[in-house]
Every structure is written in C-alpha cells, then in structure tokens.
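Subject: design request, 235 residues
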C-alpha cells in the first residue's frame, strides 16, 4: 500500500499540518511510510481540469436537484471557489494515480493525524474486505450528525462496515470528513467513472453511498482524527 498526505507546497500551515500527520504515523509505529503529495492549487486547478477534460458541476449557492443522479447538491461554505476545486482536483489526481498504478492507496488530507496504529494484521483485514473505499477517520467533530455516525459504527460487530446512514436518501453522504481513507484500484475506477458521468463535485460528495452503494465502508476502529487547523477551502 502506498500512503500520501496532500500538502500545499509553500503554504506554511499546510506544510506544518502535513508534518504533524507524518510524525503521528511514526509515533504509533505504522509500518508504512507516508509521502507528501503536491496538492492542486487555486492557480493551477482550472488548467488541470482542462487537461483531464472534466468540468465542475456543483453549485456555489443554494441547493440544486441533480436530475442525472437524483441527489440534492447543497452548496458548501466557500470563500474561494477555486480552492474548493483545487481540493477536489487533488483527490481526483490521486484517484487517477491509484487506478493507473494498480495499487492500494492510503489518502490523507494534511489535517489528519494518527491516534491508533494501523498494524499489518488489521490493515490486511481491511484490504481483504469487500469494500473498495474505506474511511478510517474518527467522525466526531469531522462531519454533521457525528454522534449518530459514531454510534452506528460502534454498534456494529464488524471490523469494516457499510457507511452509516445519517441523512435523507437524496442527500450525498459518505465518509466522515473524507480526510483519511484507503482506496483500492477498483474504487478509483468507479470514482473516475462517476466524475466523467456527473462532473467534478467536492470529493466528499461524489464519494457517497448513493453512487457507490456496495463499495463504500468505514472501520469500526478509528485510526485517525482531525487536527482542526484553519480550513484552506472555507476561509
């Protein structure tokens, strides 16, 4: 498995948070190395979309009923729309790399950090599960209705379970914060197909249980949490 932390080069807060993420993995004695992955930025994200021949298809204000998917797309708080696109493009590029290389990826945003070691026996069991995208992040404080999300996780007897259902059937809902997840090449292929079918959305919206009904899972044990640094997309 290859592991990456998305880092904005030259952005002091992103680089500091990324280093905290890497050091936290050392502290819990993970047996894999985490490499920095150069994030897309508001300066180059639009050109990158053109290179991949994809278009942004998510509202900046209000709510939109997406007839193609049947989902309600609600605008995110976003001070700089190009920063939101850049975040989505960072994940999209990693999905492309995962599919092209044909190896499992651990994808971390710079504000993730390890609280529990992801040791080989546990990692092997996670990778052997039927899920192609597996969230490993603690939902508390990382997503809406996080207490409900967490309670459903803990009530399961399975080490890896289907993403808890906390919203209406037509609201995109997936991983908690989308800041730490394991991606298999099969999941990457599905995500790429979704983007080319529906357009580029924020990564935590396109990666939802409605569009990936049998592929999206979470671990009952949380291996990472959020550093709660200043957001690079909402502020």
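Subject: RE: design request

Done. Sequence follows.
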């Amino acid at each position: 498995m290859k592991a990456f932390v998305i880092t904005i080069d030259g952005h002091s807060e992103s680089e500091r948070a990324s280093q905290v993420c890497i050091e936290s993995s050392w502290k819990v004695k993970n047996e894999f190395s985490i490499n920095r992955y150069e994030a897309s930025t508001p300066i180059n994200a639009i050109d990158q979309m053109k290179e991949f021949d994809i278009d942004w298809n998510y509202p900046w204000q209000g709510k939109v009923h997406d007839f193609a998917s049947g989902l309600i797309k609600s605008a995110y708080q976003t001070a700089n729309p190009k920063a939101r696109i850049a975040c989505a493009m960072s994940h999209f590029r990693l999905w492309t790399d995962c599919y092209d290389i044909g190896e499992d990826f651990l994808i971390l945003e710079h504000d993730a950090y390890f609280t529990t070691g992801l040791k080989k026996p546990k990692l092997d069991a996670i990778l052997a599960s039927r899920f192609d995208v597996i969230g490993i992040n603690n939902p508390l404080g990382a997503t809406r209705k996080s207490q409900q999300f967490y309670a459903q996780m803990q009530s399961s007897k399975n080490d890896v379970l289907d993403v808890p259902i906390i919203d209406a059937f037509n609201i995109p809902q997936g991983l908690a914060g989308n800041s730490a997840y394991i991606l298999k090449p099969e999941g990457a292929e599905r995500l790429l197909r979704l983007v080319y079918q529906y357009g580029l959305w924020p990564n935590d919206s396109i990666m939802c249980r409605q569009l990936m009904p049998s592929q999206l899972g979470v671990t009952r044990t949380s291996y990472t949490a959020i550093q709660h640094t200043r957001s690079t997309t909402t502020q």
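Residues 167 and 173 are 7 Å apart (CA to CA).
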